[in-house]
Amino acid sequence: MELVIVEEVQKELNRLANQDVYIHLETTNGAYATHNDESFFSSGAFIRNALVNYEIGQIKGSGPYRIGLKLNIGWVYAEGITHFEIDDQNRLLMAGHDYQGKLAVAFQISPTPFE
Amino acid sequence: MEKERQILVIFPHPDDEAFGVSGTLALHIQNGTPVTYACLTLGEMGRNLGNPPFATRESLPNIRKVELQNAAKTIGIQDLRMLGYRDKTVEFEDPEKLADHMGEIIADVNPSLVITFYPGYSVHPDHDATGAAVVKAVGRLAPEQRPKLHCVAFSKNTLDELGAPDIVNDVSAISDQKIATIQAHASQTQLMIQNMAEKLKVKDPDMIAWVNNERFWTYKF
Predict the structure, then answer these.
(1) For A95, which of B45, B48, B57 is closest by C-beta distance?
(2) pTM over cut 0.90
């Protein structure tokens, strides 16, 4: 992964628009957050292989970045994106890593299902 | 340490074996006991991807699979089974089916000792769910057919509620091998290994005790 280059991410969001795509969206603070600090409220969510078709997708902000996909009947959104990669299967993998480098958010868009 | 005929270890994540039991396993293997390690997931949802990141959510499973194979080799485990479940989802599997699956593995391996997590005292939901399935599978056997069941526990309420561990294995004789096993899971342990090495160098007593003593609670049905 490399640090976000806004133009490249935007180009990929455009490429994947207006077709059926699969989404992996995840936020996490780790399974041990409350074990390590009892005052910490642990929360997180993930969805893998949600099938959507978005009409417009944009990257916004000055870093960490926000990503929003506008669907016919709703939205997909994530914030805290710092890194991206186009992998060998032409998938747009985006992630937000915290100050220790640990994954905090993942937002991935693929023309084929994630395995 | 009592000599065992055959050991079966069941944990959900690559690296679960490294911290709590790798020394015990290595000592048993040195003593001629075969060990089977059944690992439910590939730790697909791990948060450590390197800093700067060298892995992605999608490439992490393959990296951790190789690390797991190397860790098993370092311990001397000949029979490593990867069961194909997904990280973070073990507790949402059908509990009966999961116990059936654990039961099949137990029947196949026919161990004299099973090692897993103590359900309810193992912090991560995957740990508790794995332990619960193994306990259920062993509990289905007639009492005289049950292998011994040693559980790892580390939640904050463990000592208050379960009491002191009834088995504490001193693994200092092979601590280098244990540290090498932890190191084999480089994607997950890189940061902690530095911290560990520094503390061991200045002979920090808590760290030495943490590495050298492996603690188990025998599950009583």
Answers:
(1) B57
(2) yes
